[in-house]
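Before any further analysis, backbone shapes were mapped to integers, which produced the following:

***
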Amino acid sequence: MRILELFCGIGGMAAAFGEGAEVAAAYDLDRVGLGVYSANFPTHRTVVRNLDTLPAAELASYRADAWTLSPPCQPYTRRGKGRDLDDPRARSLRNLIGRLAEVRPAGLFVENVPGFATSRAAELLRETLDGCGYEWRETILCPSELGWPNRRRRFYLVAGGLLRAERPSGARPAASTVGECVERRYDDDPELAVPADLQERYPHALDVVDAADPAAVTACFTSAYGRSPVRSGSYLRLADGRLRRFHPREVLALLGFPSSYRWPADLPLANAWRLAGNSLSLPAVRHALGLVD
């Protein structure tokens, strides 16, 4: 299958498909994110582009079997004020929905926050799919429901040829507990240490997990992890009682990325946390696509 990645981020969709797909091109406006993408998929074509005005002819030129979209979620969240299609950050999705009706790729995959399901943008997408004769299904799924140790509840829509996608080899994730995602070499990293005063200020608001607990499930990591002390992800309790943040490599492991996935050596932690928080849960994506049971 030949896919066109739109809003590709650091390459979650390419990683989810693995060898089961050929990437025609990967589009995003974030140059830093595309740098991480290229470091892991050096043979894939990446394009820095604002998708607000991407023309149908350019999309059609790739002859892709399917488009994958993970558009900005802020228009559909309370923190983003829920402005839906009136939010400037929704212009790119509105444009692509229009292009979908013109180009009509065989398949489509969309990922977003649960609030997207009841948005005007989602209704426009459904109406377009129906008008073009696509068969489609949608679901709201959390990887914790699949036995994965991370909460990341998301909306998924699969349409057309992707409803019958072939399962690639090696698609099933390898880790299933927080402990398997943790790297002990980071326990004494001063950049990850949680100051005592932070623990005193938020004694009941910090989501804390113990790697030794086989039933532990981490909270959803967001792009604000490392900046916002609460509701942006979990903290790891060490054997001696200290708390530390999860390293971006560990966050990716909790999102189901392979251990071979790497961050550029000169990438600041803040950028890596932001990009990881904006990425995808691979086990949930694969399940939504029917690539794993």
In short: Strands lie at 2-6, 22-28, 46-48, 66-69, 107-112, 136-141, 154-160, 207-210, 234-237, 243-245.
